């Protein structure tokens, strides 16, 4: 077999997806830098709400898109989830709890271990979304069921931030849609007519956001609390959630058509989104701890913002950082420690049995 044939036999990575993921995680960092000062500037608050309408929804949808082969080897897949998602969650959750003084003793640590610290909800929800694929893939109408649960979960007063229950079920339909989307369908976003739809979607998104107060829109987009805490009634909360589901899809449509289709210098960094996401939280906490964020952003904030933003994004995805952080971010050292552990093997077997239980 010639070298040309070997290359042809390998599945080429599509730069579109790596570009999208890198841009989205970079926008997550930008949003976290803006969030502490949002109340001091209405235009900034509105802009951040617009970014919120698509950056995590689009990232969740794309993450779901790459779960096509989850059921080929269930035991191996679940083991990969435990090592690649759950172990890093535990490590970074404990680290950030210690930074916040919320893990001073064993009792306090256990009380907060599954109450996701700032930004850590995504890992806990990501683990749940992947595991939920097993039962939902057996349903006749999985996406419709997921939307029903995502809407209904707001009626449950105790379903809030603990275990990331609210966000897990609210955003799961997006993950599930990504899972069922075919590559041919994603090609539509690369067409010129998609850009026209994107402009229209953006205009409608801004119009819808303008009907809500800045804080109400933020709460609806974050989806971390039950209706009892963010709306006048459960019925009002249900209506708002349905509207904001529509807003999220408009946001995704506003963003994806503008993603570059060709390879750029930053394209390869789209494979390092986990590093950017997990490590940038450290800087946000440090900046908050030393009271670096102004109550009212002035000219110097806007001058420094892009510099600090890009410095964090590119540093956390740099070769040196990836080299040293890989064992923790990807749970590699845990794989060695847990190799052959009877308790881990038993857990994987139990999860696999539950996944296939009718």
Give the key terms.
358 residues, mainly alpha, 70% helix, 0% strand, disordered N terminus, transmembrane helix
Task: Please indicate the percent range of residues in DSSP E strands (runs of 2 or more).
Answer: under 5%
Question: Which oligomeric state applies?
Answer: single chain
| Structural domains: how many | 1
The major pleated sheet works out as: none
Subcellular location: Membrane
Organism: Planococcus shenhongbingii
Family: Belongs to the acyltransferase 3 family.
Pfam families: Acyl_transf_3
Question: Can you give a write-up of this model?
Answer:
The chain is an all-alpha fold and 358 residues long. It has helices spanning 3-9, 15-34, 42-52, 55-65, 74-99, 106-112, 121-136, 142-152, 165-180, 183-186, 192-210, 214-222, 227-230, 234-255, 273-289, 299-316, 319-329, 332-338, 342-356. Helix 2 (15-34) runs antiparallel to helix 3, helix 2 (15-34) crosses helix 16 and helix 8 (142-152) packs antiparallel against helix 9. This is Acyltransferase family protein. InterPro entries: Acyl_transf_3_dom, Nod_factor_acetyltransferase. Belongs to the acyltransferase 3 family. The chain crosses the membrane at residues 20-37, 43-66, 78-98, 118-136, 143-159, 165-182, 194-214, 242-260, 272-293, 299-325.
């Amino acid at each position: 077999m010639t070298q040309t044939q070997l290359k042809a036999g390998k599945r080429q990575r599509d730069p579109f997806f790596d570009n999208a993921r890198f841009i989205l995680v970079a926008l997550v960092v930008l949003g976290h830098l803006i969030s502490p000062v949002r109340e001091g500037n209405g235009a900034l608050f509105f802009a951040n709400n617009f970014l919120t309408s698509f950056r995590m929804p689009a990232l969740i949808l794309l993450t779901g898109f790459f779960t096509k082969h989850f059921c080929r080897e269930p035991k191996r897949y679940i083991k990969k989830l435990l090592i690649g998602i759950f172990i890093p969650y535990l490590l970074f959750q404990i680290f950030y709890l210690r930074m916040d003084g919320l893990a001073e003793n064993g009792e306090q640590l256990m009380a907060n271990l599954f109450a996701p610290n700032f930004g850590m909800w995504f890992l806990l929800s990501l683990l749940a979304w992947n595991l939920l694929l097993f039962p939902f893939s057996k349903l006749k109408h999985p996406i419709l069921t997921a939307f029903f649960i995502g809407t209904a979960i707001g009626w449950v007063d105790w379903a809030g931030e603990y275990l990331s229950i609210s966000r897990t079920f609210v955003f799961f339909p997006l993950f599930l849609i990504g899972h069922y989307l075919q590559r041919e369908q994603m090609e539509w976003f690369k067409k010129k007519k998609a850009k026209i739809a994107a402009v229209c979607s953006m205009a409608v998104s801004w119009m819808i956001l303008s009907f809500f107060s800045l804080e109400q829109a933020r709460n609806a987009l974050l989806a971390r609390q039950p209706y009892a805490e963010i709306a006048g009634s459960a019925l009002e909360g249900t209506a708002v959630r349905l509207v904001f589901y529509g807003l999220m899809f408009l946001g995704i449509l506003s963003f994806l058509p503008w993603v570059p289709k060709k390879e750029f210098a930053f394209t390869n960094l789209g494979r390092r989104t986990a590093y950017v996401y997990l490590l940038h939280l450290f800087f946000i906490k440090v900046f908050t701890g030393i009271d670096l964020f102004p109550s009212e952003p002035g000219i110097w904030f806007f001058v420094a913002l892009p510099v600090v933003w890009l410095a964090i994004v590119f540093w956390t995805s740099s070769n040196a950082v990836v080299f040293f952080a890989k064992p923790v971010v990807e749970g590699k050292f845990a794989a060695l420690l847990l190799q052959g552990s009877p308790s881990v093997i038993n857990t994987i077997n139990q999860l696999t049995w539950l996944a296939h239980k009718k």
